[in-house]
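Notes from the pairing session

We agreed to fold both candidates in a single pass and log them together. This is the raw record for the first candidate, unedited. Please don't reformat it; downstream parsing expects exactly this layout.

Candidate A
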Amino acid sequence: MILVHVLKDAQSQSLWQKTQVSESWGILNPVRHGQVLLTSNAAWMAEPILEYTANRQEHLLQELDQLFSAL
């Protein structure tokens, strides 16, 4: 499984589109097996992304659990 977070700005979207059609992306096993999960507005990716407080980490784990439970 690959989790990809792409911001909604034009530059990020353009790079993501280029990535999706690249040969190096297409040969990855998770990509070939449809195991790519795309996010664009996940609260847990908001600044400060590298905050390592217990509360922040708990929030991250809850968001990931919801994300993967939806599969």
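Candidate B (folded immediately after A)
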Amino acid sequence: MIRALTLGLAAAALAVSAADARTVAAPHVAAQNFEQLSKPLPLPYNEGANADAGVAAAKARALRGHKRLLIDLGGNWCLDCRLLAGTMELPELRAFVAKHYEVVTVDIGRFDKNGQVPAAYGITGRLKGVPAVLIVDPRTNRLVNAGHETALADARSLSPQALADWLAQWAA
């Protein structure tokens, strides 16, 4: 019994070690706060874009590049969305995101446009906030960060480093 328990604990430790080995470290972000971001903040959402075509094209690029698909749902009216976009444009984070993700932005209007995009990943009804970030495995079309899609909806309460850390936890 003790031997079985010991073997079980050893196996669990190896599983944790294997999971830790797959963890991607976030880059160090020099900006300590959002006041240090370039101004004006970006307006990342193209209101006239075909969201379905944009997501399909980004998914195809993610597959070819062996990256995860990052779908950023939001609107240019949203300060938290613009802070996320500005943070992702910082040189140290831009290189990290380019290495691990294929990014597509989807304009959701005032929660009244392009609801079919999150619905394709099982998120129905009104989003709980924006930005809503969907991290998708393009090989399986599975939502990797299920239950955490709106974690950045209050991005202004975080730091640029905290945003980088959040993105790193889902990187492949």
